[in-house]
Specification:
Elements: E1 7-9, H1 11-41, H2 49-73, E2 75-77, E3 91-98, E4 101-102, E5 107-112, E6 123-125, H3 129-134, E7 142-146, E8 152-160
Helix pairs in contact: 1-2
């Protein structure tokens, strides 16, 4: 018996997946079918690079459609609570402390699932090293972080929304 995986997502994450799914089905799939028709019209398919590329793209599109449909089907939408603790769905303002000195800059992270993570825009996974370390902590807590490379530093939780 297969184990069914549940995906914890925010409503925003589910909406983005639905948008991507619609684009794949209504735009990318149709563009790919057109590319396949054009490649077939060129004749001999055994040595037709355009046809091979279109078939590979078709397989990628169909696999992604199935993946997104599965994620949406098994998604559990995370509701944020009013509790003032770090958890999924919360926005956390932190200050890094290195060598005993706190940085001036306060950084803001939105705690989300690994499927939605995008560190470049401040969206970090609750399963990441920082996410795991600060999870369930409160404003004012100083938490020790050990990176994958063994580097140690502290984070001070400045605010939680």
């Amino acid at each position: 018996m297969a184990i069914k995986q549940t995906y914890q997502l925010t409503q925003e994450g589910v909406d983005k997946l639905k948008e991507e799914l619609t684009n794949l089905k209504d735009v990318k799939r149709i563009e790919n079918l057109e590319a396949l028709k054009e490649a077939r019209a060129q004749g001999d398919l055994s040595e037709n690079a355009d046809y091979d590329a279109a078939r590979n793209e078709q397989a990628r599109i169909e696999a992604r459609i199935l993946e997104i449909e599965n994620i949406i089907k098994h998604a559990k939408i995370i509701k944020t609570t009013d509790e003032a603790i770090v958890n999924i769905g919360k926005t956390v303002k932190v200050r890094f402390i290195k060598n005993g000195k706190a940085e001036e800059q306060v950084r803001e992270f939105h705690m989300i699932s690994s499927l939605e993570a995008d560190p470049k825009v401040g969206k970090i996974s609750i399963e990441s090293p920082i996410g795991k370390a600060i999870k369930n902590h409160q404003k004012g807590d100083k938490v020790q972080i050990v990176s994958d490379t063994g580097q140690e530093f502290f984070i001070e939780i400045v605010d939680i929304n």
